[in-house]
Amino acid sequence: MTITSPPQKIFRSSRLTKTLLILCLAWPTVTLAAAVGQPAPFFKLEGADNNSYQLNDFKDKIVFINFWASWCTPCRKELPMLDQLQDKFDNLVVLAINIDRDIENANQFLEKYKIRSRVLFDPQTNVVSSFGAVAMPSSYILDQNGIVRYKHYGFNSEKDTIKWSQEVSSLLQEKK
Q1: What is the rounded CA–CA span in Å between residue 171 and residue 176?
Q2: What are phi and psi of 148, to 5 degrees?
Q3: Tens digit of pLDDT for each residue in 94-145?
Q4: CA angle, corner 119, sides to 43 and 93, nearest 5?
Q5: Can you give the pTM of this predicted structure?
Q6: Staple partner for 109: which of 28, 45, 70, 74, CB 3.0–4.6 Å?
């Protein structure tokens, strides 16, 4: 005789089942995500300076795209460090793309933390979705040809800044 558990009990107790369900639901996003070695998805967004920017505006530069939100605790630590990274490299552009639905929340954050990087707004989250970001913050480093070369999810203040510098340096040493 076989004893089976009700589906609710299996679902509650099985981490594997939960993980598989999440992967199945997220699969369409994952397959459309910006993949390492592939061109970054095109975008055009409004900036905090009221100008419109598109990815093509930064051709021939290393582009560090960072998705952040005003409610994101690690973003408070990470964004000022991205300013420092941009100051360190002449051919690097940091694009800090905010995903807050209410842009005023982002503006208050920027005022409080004195962010100098170029800030763009993605309140409908179309761009962050096209990149397939899975955490806040999420970052993508593009080479001079607009190819995604590195991805970073979350933020580790002890390791990430060193890693970013190494990755940007290696890309600057490559020929176009």
Answers
A1: 9
A2: -70, 120
A3: 999 999 999 999 999 999 988 999 999 999 999 999 999 989 999 999 999 9
A4: 75
A5: 0.80
A6: 70
Contacts of 135 (CB under 8 A, 6+ apart): 153, 154
Q: Is 71 helix (H, G, I), strand (E, B) or coil?
A: coil
The CA distances from residue 6 to 9, 11, 12, 17, 24, in Å, are 6, 9, 10, 14, 22
| 92 and 64 Cβ atoms separated by less than 8 Å | yes
Looking at 3.10.129.10, 3.40.30.10, 3.40.605.10, 3.30.70.100, the CATH number of the domain 35-173 comes to 3.40.30.10
Say how far apart CA 92 and CA 85 lie, in whole Å.
Answer: 8
Contact 66, 82 (CB under 8 A): yes
pLDDT digits (tens, 9 = 90+) for 133-145: 989 999 999 999 9
How close are the terminal C-alpha atoms of the chain, in Å?
67
Tokens of residue 77, six digits: 């630590």
What are the C-alpha distances in Å from 145 to residues 55, 82, 91, 132, 164?
11, 21, 13, 20, 18
Residue 6 in tokens: 């009700």
Q: What is the total residue count of the chain?
A: 176
Task: For the chain, give every domain's residue range.
Answer: 35-173
